[in-house]
């Protein structure tokens, strides 16, 4: 009896001392992370070079691959181990822009602010045609009946005249305390998640919504299609064509133009004046499957018991082609590298393996992350394999360049205490708002499907939703250095904590 008591007391003190020494270690590591991340920061230097020198990183393109090579070298220079490419697509074609111009030449001259949509074909040199306004292709039968024989040599203005909706209020939005509180107060998620196989199946039809229309107008001899979106201030959205695979449609010259120019053309037609357009587009298609790579790297775990377990962090590396992908998703891509660079630089030996993945093809259909998951965790319709059970958590960053204010728990209430503990020590860097809410439309959905605890951070929106997202203004000017420095420090601290914890992050209990 006496011996048992003594043992119990000894065990209690051992736990207490362990806990105490872990706290001392945590405090020291946090100070070192802050020193490296704020005083020796590399994050903005990396982003400048990535976005200004390498620019757009459209899935399948040579530009993507050149940027991936540069990035993998940065990862090696930063001390990451097992840096490698893993191919994610064997049927994703390449497309690059060479030259384009769009002008109105009658009734007088106006240079049109335009950008080609991805995967559009070259025009037949410089071409000229009258504008015809087609407001909708919802009813293709009616459209065929109305326009057969009338489109030869025409430039089609497609869609309704954009609403005259000017940006109002602050262009740069940050969450208020009240908004964060409301997110935390949610008891159940309001956003429902579609099972991944159903989501992918749905995209197969929704992504090619304009195919029949484009084929019809081309067969009728139309020269080009011009369309727009309803955010004024000259913002161009050349996203949203998903003809990325070999063998599928190559759309005729297809441009987005600025809404103000669309409005002028549409109003002139209403007044009975027919504007004339001169344009050219030169693009190049190629079949280079070696461009289609995810970039993987890690700091390998060192604890004999825990090194087989992994904390996985990810961000998509591809972008649309009009800006330089600085906010979507260059900033977050370099934040991942910077977080691991910081931990390496301070000499931290992770207990669990800290692995990062930069995914290609997110903008198309989560191609990169889905391929990684299939390769490592089993087929989409199979039961997740044992390797998936060794992933403690997947953390994703893909909400622009704004500061991290907390985390979407993605319907995993059991993970709340883990992240409360993570954010407690860095209250002066982030509110650490934890919401049970699901956020969707990016790569953490892939890992969630495999029942890996998968999360995405809550980030300040800044000008992401209204100005930079998929536009020609997705450039470095909209990335505040302080925000991404902070994010790298927060991420480094978060993965340090998850690596040190005794237990893996709890998984959702599936019914
Ligand atoms: Zn993105």
Keywords:
511 residues, alpha/beta, Aminopeptidase, Glucose Oxidase, domain 1, 8-stranded mixed beta sheet, 16 helices, 19% strand, binds zinc ion
Describe the overall structure.
The protein has 511 residues and is an alpha/beta fold. It starts with a helix and ends in an 11-residue tail after the last helix. It has 16 helices and 16 strands. The strands form two sheets. Strands 1-10-12-11-13-16-14-15 form an eight-stranded mixed β-sheet, with helices on both faces. The chain binds zinc ion. The site of zinc ion has 4 residues, from α9. Zinc ion binds next to α9.
Instruction: Write down the overall geometry.
Output: elongated
Structural class comes to alpha/beta
Oligomer: single chain
Radius of gyration: 26 Å
By CATH, the architecture of the largest domain is named 3-Layer(aba) Sandwich
Q: Give the CATH H-level superfamily of the largest domain.
A: Zn peptidases
- The low-confidence runs, each spanning 5 or more residues with pLDDT under 50, are none
CATH topology of the largest domain: Aminopeptidase
Strand content: 15-25%
Our count of helices gives: 16
Write the layout of secondary structure elements.
Blueprint: H1 2-39, H2 43-54, H3 62-77, E1 81-87, E2 94-106, E3 110-111, E4 114-116, E5 127-134, H4 140-147, E6 155-158, H5 177-185, H6 196-206, H7 211-219, E7 224-227, E8 254-257, H8 259-270, E9 276-286, E10 293-299, E11 310-316, H9 326-345, E12 353-359, H10 362-365, H11 367-377, H12 386-389, E13 391-396, E14 404-408, H13 416-424, E15 433-435, H14 444-449, E16 454-459, H15 464-468, H16 481-500
Parallel strand pairs: 5-6, 6-7, 7-8, 11-12, 11-13, 13-16, 14-15
Antiparallel strand pairs: 1-10, 2-3, 2-9, 4-8, 5-9, 10-12, 14-16
Helix pairs in contact: 1-16, 2-9, 9-16, 13-16
């Amino acid at each position: 009896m006496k011996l048992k008591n003594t043992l119990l007391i000894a065990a209690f003190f051992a736990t207490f001392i362990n806990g105490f020494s872990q706290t001392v270690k945590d405090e020291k590591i946090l100070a070192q992370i802050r020193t490296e991340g704020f005083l020796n920061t590399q994050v903005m230097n990396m982003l400048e070079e990535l976005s200004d020198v390498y620019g757009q990183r459209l899935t399948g393109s040579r530009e993507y691959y050149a940027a991936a090579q540069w990035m993998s070298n940065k990862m090696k220079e930063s001390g990451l181990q097992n840096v490698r490419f893993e191919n994610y697509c064997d049927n994703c074609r390449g497309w690059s822009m060479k030259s384009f111009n769009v002008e109105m030449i009658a009734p007088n001259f106006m240079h049109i602010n335009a950008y080609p949509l991805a995967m559009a074909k070259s025009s037949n040199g410089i071409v000229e045609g009258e504008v015809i306004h087609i407001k909708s292709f919802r009813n293709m039968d009616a459209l065929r009946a109305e326009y057969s024989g009338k489109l030869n040599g025409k430039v089609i203005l497609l869609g309704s005249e954009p609403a005259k909706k000017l940006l109002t209020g602050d262009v740069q939005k940050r969450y208020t305390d009240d908004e964060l509180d409301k997110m935390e107060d949610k008891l159940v998620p309001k956003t429902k998640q579609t099972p991944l196989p159903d989501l992918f199946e749905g995209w197969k039809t929704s992504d090619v919504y304009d195919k029949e229309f484009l084929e019809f107008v081309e067969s009728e001899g139309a020269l080009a299609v011009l369309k727009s979106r309803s955010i004024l201030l000259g913002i161009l959205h050349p996203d949203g064509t998903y003809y990325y695979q070999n063998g599928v449609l190559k759309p005729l010259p297809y441009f987005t133009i600025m809404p103000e120019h669309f409005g002028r053309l549409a109003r002139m037609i209403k007044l009975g004046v027919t504007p004339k357009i001169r344009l050219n587009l030169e693009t190049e298609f190629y079949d280079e499957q070696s461009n289609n790579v995810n970039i993987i790297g890690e700091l390998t775990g060192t604890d004999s018991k825990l090194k087989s377990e992994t904390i996985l962090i990810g961000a998509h590396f591809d972008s649309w082609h009009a800006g330089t992908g600085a906010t979507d998703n260059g900033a977050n891509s370099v934040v991942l590298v910077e977080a691991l660079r910081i931990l390496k630089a301070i000499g931290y030996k992770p207990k669990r393996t800290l692995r990062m993945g930069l995914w290609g093809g997110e903008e198309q259909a989560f191609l990169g992350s889905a391929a990684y998951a299939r390769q490592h965790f089993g087929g989409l319709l199979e039961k997740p394999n044992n390797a998936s059970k060794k992933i403690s958590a997947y953390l994703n960053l893909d909400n622009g360049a704004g500061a991290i204010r907390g985390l979407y728990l993605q319907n995993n209430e059991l993970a709340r205490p883990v992240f409360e503990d993570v954010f407690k020590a860095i209250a002066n860097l982030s509110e650490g708002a934890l919401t049970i809410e699901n956020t969707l439309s990016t790569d953490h959905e892939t890992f969630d499907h495999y029942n890996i605890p998968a999360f995405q951070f809550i980030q300040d929106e800044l000008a992401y939703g209204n100005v930079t997202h998929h536009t020609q203004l997705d450039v470095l000017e909209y990335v505040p250095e302080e925000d991404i420095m902070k994010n790298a420090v927060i991420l480094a601290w978060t993965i340090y904590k998850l690596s040190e914890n005794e237990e893996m992050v709890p998984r959702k209990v599936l019914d």
